[in-house]
């Protein structure tokens, strides 16, 4: 007999034994079967019941033992491990029953949060801005007439359950030749867009290939352009040019808007918002990642009328040319200015100090910590917005990021409090 089929036959044998056990147990407890088969002999009825129970337990134990032995043998050849299987079962049976969370934004900040959030719930929908027009995404957008894939790709990888090699491949950026500066993951999504003829389907199928936890959706399928109006009256067109040109001008951003002014949200994004237990804004670039999502038609009213609690996560560092000298309250007021005064229920802000050696590298580039002003807490309270303060800094390789696990825990606590 081929070794290939031996494990399967063994497993089938244990299943057959279990079926026999169920049959004998049924005979033992059924008065009808007892009367027909054993002719009122009470002792045999008890024996059948005991044998049946024993065979059921024994066969189940052997069945699962065979499964795990097969997994261990497969793992020795580079396959799935028992820990991997446990994680899959945990996510399928436990995390699938956790709160439904919608996270709105874009950029690095959003992907960092998603990596932590997927450890607490699998009911995640990331709704991502498509206003990006710089770097490799901008080139693909101009050359192929597609929506920018960069922020979408980062969020898909953050929620993906894939091997490290595959993640490295999709994060790889070409350094030479005609593809210099292009990210392989962006090219992959571009190829999927060509295959399916739809950016929405391209994102969905890419998510399926990478076994994504939850969903990643573009906020809109419209080809939008972000425009900033500065306090001195200057106008800057294009998401990637806003921080760069504003640094040269030296003014503050008054407000941003998008063209075309009529753009409609993705229906899947609307449905996710309506069903969510928690709706989170940020973290991420205030004017170029978070707020653009609020400029899509009717999305503010959809968010406001949704049952979920609305939370804004303030950035830990200012962004040169975009949020220079901004405190927590400045970030919040910009969100409300582009939506409505009573949109938010909570604001989460960092109060942990950043190590000087890391901070110095940021301050040299014009970036400063986002701090709570003396009046910030009082102003937030006057707007009926609850403030949650925490030590939320995570420094890796001299990069300052949010502690995604601690941040995710705070978000889950908010849902628990509401329930």
Please outline what is shown here:
It is built from 18 helices and twelve strands. The chain has helices at 6-29, 31-37, 42-76, 82-93, 107-117, 135-144, 150-159, 164-171, 184-196, 199-209, 241-249, 267-275, 286-290, 299-305, 328-337, 356-363, 376-382, 404-418; strands spanning 101-105, 124-128, 215-218, 225-230, 235-237, 253-259, 278-281, 309-313, 346-350, 386-390, 393-396, 399-402.
Secondary structure elements and their pairing?
Blueprint: H1 6-29, H2 31-37, H3 42-76, H4 82-93, E1 101-105, H5 107-117, E2 124-128, H6 135-144, H7 150-159, H8 164-171, H9 184-196, H10 199-209, E3 215-218, E4 225-230, E5 235-237, H11 241-249, E6 253-259, H12 267-275, E7 278-281, H13 286-290, H14 299-305, E8 309-313, H15 328-337, E9 346-350, H16 356-363, H17 376-382, E10 386-390, E11 393-396, E12 399-402, H18 404-418
Parallel strand pairs: 1-2, 1-7, 2-3, 7-8, 8-9, 9-10
Antiparallel strand pairs: 4-5, 4-6, 11-12
Helix pairs in contact: 1-2, 1-3, 5-7, 5-18, 9-10
Report on the structure:
The chain has helices at 6-29, 31-37, 42-76, 82-93, 107-117, 135-144, 150-159, 164-171, 184-196, 199-209, 241-249, 267-275, 286-290, 299-305, 328-337, 356-363, 376-382, 404-418; strands at residues 101-105, 124-128, 215-218, 225-230, 235-237, 253-259, 278-281, 309-313, 346-350, 386-390, 393-396, 399-402. With 419 residues, it is an alpha/beta fold. It folds into two domains: 6-80; 93-418, Rossmann fold (3-Layer(aba) Sandwich). The strands form three sheets. Strands 3-2-1-7-8-9-10 form a seven-stranded parallel sheet, with helices on both faces. Strands 5-4-6 form a three-stranded antiparallel sheet, covered by helices on one side. Strands 11-12 form a two-stranded antiparallel ribbon. Helix 5 (107-117) runs parallel beside helix 7. The chain is globular, with a radius of gyration of 28 Å. The termini are far apart. The model has no long low-confidence stretch (mean pLDDT 84).
């Amino acid at each position: 007999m081929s070794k290939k089929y031996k494990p399967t036959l063994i497993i089938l044998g244990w299943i057959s034994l279990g079926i026999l056990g169920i049959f004998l147990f049924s005979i033992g407890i059924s008065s009808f079967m007892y009367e027909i088969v054993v002719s009122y002999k009470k002792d045999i009825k008890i024996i059948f019941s005991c044998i049946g129970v024993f065979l059921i337990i024994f066969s189940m134990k052997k069945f699962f033992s065979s499964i795990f032995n097969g997994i261990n043998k497969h793992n020795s050849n580079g396959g799935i491990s028992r820990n991997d299987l446990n994680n899959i079962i945990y996510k399928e049976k436990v995390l699938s029953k956790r709160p439904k969370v919608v996270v709105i934004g874009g950029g690095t900040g959003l992907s960092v949060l998603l990596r932590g959030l997927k450890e607490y719930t699998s009911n995640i929908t990331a709704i991502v801005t498509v206003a990006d027009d710089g770097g490799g995404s901008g080139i693909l957008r101009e050359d192929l007439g597609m929506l920018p894939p960069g922020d979408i790709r980062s969020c898909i990888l953050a929620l993906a359950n894939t091997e490290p090699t595959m993640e490295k491949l999709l994060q790889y950026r070409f350094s030479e030749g005609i593809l210099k500066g292009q990210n392989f993951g962006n090219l992959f999504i571009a190829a999927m867009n060509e295959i399916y003829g739809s950016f929405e389907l391209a994102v969905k199928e890419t998510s399926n290939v990478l076994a994504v936890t939850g969903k990643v959706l573009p906020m809109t399928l419209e080809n939008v352009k972000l425009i900033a109006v500065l306090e001195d009256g200057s106008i800057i067109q294009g998401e990637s040019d806003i921080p760069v040109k504003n640094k040269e001008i030296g003014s503050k951003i008054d407000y941003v808007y998008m063209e075309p002014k009529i753009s409609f949200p993705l229906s899947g994004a609307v449905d996710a918002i309506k069903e969510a237990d928690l709706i989170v804004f940020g973290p991420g670039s205030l004017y170029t990642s978070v707020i653009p999502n609020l400029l899509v038609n009717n999305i503010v009213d959809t968010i406001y009328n949704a049952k979920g609690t609305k939370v804004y996560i303030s950035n830990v560092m200012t962004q040169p040319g975009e949020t220079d000298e901004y405190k927590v309250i400045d970030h919040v007021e910009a969100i409300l200015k582009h939506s409505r005064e009573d949109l938010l229920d909570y604001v989460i802000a960092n109060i942990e100090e950043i190590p000087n050696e890391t901070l110095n590298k940021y301050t040299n580039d014009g970036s400063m910590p986002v701090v709570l002003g003396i009046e910030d807490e009082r102003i937030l309270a006057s707007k009926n917005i609850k403030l949650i303060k925490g030590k939320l800094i995570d420094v890796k390789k001299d990069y300052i990021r949010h502690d995604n696990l601690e941040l995710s825990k705070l978000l889950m606590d908010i849902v628990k409090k509401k329930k």
